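Deliverable D2.4 — example input (structure tokens):
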């Protein structure tokens, strides 16, 4: 794509946004594909890259927890268009001008009947009813193999509240026959 844009003399006037909504488990935790109760690092740690037409910040990394919800607002901003008032997501184009998007200290997502939240230190996963809550220390256990929820009940409560707040107060409940969907924030 990049070579074609360069060949067509469009690279210097085109913003390229490359992202994925989820990864894929390739044998981690004994699973191939995706499984709601194992939506761990291999599922949520996915690429989100923006190439500025002028090459601004080329090769640099930003620690903002970007989401697919940010794509539309960012693309509209690059085109000089104002985003509709009800549009969710953040305008990440501001990063290229030295500004910061509003703070997003956590990542959150939902897959099937499970919800996840985390940051650079901790990863939390639970069924949306809250019956099975698990917590992983990402600094000490980057593969997220050892559940430490019983040792850190205050963090379990914190991430559960993060998810409830993100969902507007209550978490969605999905029946076993509900359509499968991936939602993130």
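Example output (designed residues):
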């Amino acid at each position: 794509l990049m070579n074609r844009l360069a060949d067509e003399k469009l690279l210097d006037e085109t913003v390229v946004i490359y992202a994925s909504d989820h990864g894929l488990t390739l044998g981690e935790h004994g699973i191939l594909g995706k499984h709601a109760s194992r939506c761990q690092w291999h599922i949520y740690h996915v690429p989100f890259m923006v190439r500025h037409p002028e090459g601004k910040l080329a090769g640099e990394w930003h620690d903002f927890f970007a989401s697919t919800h940010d794509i539309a607002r960012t693309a509209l901003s690059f085109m000089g268009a104002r985003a509709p008032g009800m549009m969710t997501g953040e305008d990440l184009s501001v990063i290229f001008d030295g500004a910061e998007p509003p703070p997003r200290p956590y990542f959150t997502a939902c897959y099937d009947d499970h919800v996840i939240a985390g940051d650079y230190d901790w990863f939390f996963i639970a069924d949306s009813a809250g019956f099975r809550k698990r917590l992983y220390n990402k600094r000490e256990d980057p593969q997220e193999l050892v559940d430490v929820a019983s040792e850190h009940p205050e963090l379990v409560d914190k991430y559960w509240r993060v998810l409830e707040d993100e969902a507007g107060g209550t978490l969605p409940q999905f029946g076993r026959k509900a359509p499968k969907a991936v939602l993130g924030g």
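Strands lie at 16-19, 25-26, 32-33, 48-51, 107-111, 114-118, 122-127, 133-137, 182-184.
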